[in-house]
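step: validate -> pass
step: tokenize input -> pass
step: predict -> running
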Amino acid sequence: KFVLEALAEESSDPKNHNYSFSQGEPKFKEAVAEWYEGRFGVNLDPEREVIALIGSKEGLANIARAFVNPGDRVLVPNPAYPVYANGATILSGGVPVVMPLLEENGFKPDIDALVEGGMGRVKMMFLNYPNNPTGSVMDVRSLERIVEFAEENNIIVCYDNAYSEITFDGYRAPSILQVKGGKEVAVEFHSCSKTFSMTGDRIGFAVGNREIISGLLKVKAQVDSGPPRYTQRVAVRALRSYVDGEPPEYVREITRIYGERRDVLVEGLRRLGLGCGKPLATFYVWVKCGGSSMKFCERLLDAGVVATPGVGFGEYGEGYVRFSVTQPKEKIEEACERMEKVL
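step: predict -> pass
step: emit ->
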């Protein structure tokens, strides 16, 4: 509610409908830096190490436009959010190099296998944890290995951390920038969409290595004028609602609700004999369906239940489907009852 009230107030001010800056309003960037210091213990220069985004999706696409030349190879996870391979790599003339995210590896990339495969002309690497679609999470030790790998191979790491605040059972998602050397190789993408339920307001940010941020700004300066001033001002209020790195009651409550819905869905799916873990983050549940994910989802549609075929996230998503817990518990319970009739 406080976001809606802030939007009503800030959007009613005519001054907030003027052009912004491609890099973002100074007060917004300062609030982002404050939030990172409180939440992750990461010190950022708001002028040179923070940039506003029209949602993190825009930044993920434009970072490749800034650094990827035709023929450059880009490490992309699979299964994954399609923007990494398509909107970023392919549309910039790059060549996607698939990093399989396998269940036996906790849906994390196998860095040793990447090294053995050769890193010739690899320019960039995309990672996303907490992960969409698998719900898997990252630990600091694994991040240290990734940073070491990037340093050794001169690779830019683009770390999508949009789901860091949607976590359960005591888990708190780290930032790659809190790892020693992280700021030397990485830029991290974040968004107010998930944390503050502001998906349609399109306000996000990228932080980290100042040379990488500078390159991103050079592209953005030619294609956009930054997010609307009023959405940035609302985001300032939202970010500053954290106290000493701890989320406000609203964020804690929405996370509690997602956690309850996750429990209901996982319990229902397991009763149906479907293999799935209980994710520690995101509002997704990644379920093994044991065959064609498209055909499985078609069967669910016959019962009026919508799920996303895993193959839509890449070839290594085949055999899985993704459910979301963005509906009330009653709807989730009903969906499980309907699935029981067709499975």
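step: describe -> Residues 249-342 form a domain with the Aspartate Aminotransferase, domain 1 fold (CATH 3.90.1150.10).
step: cleanup -> pass
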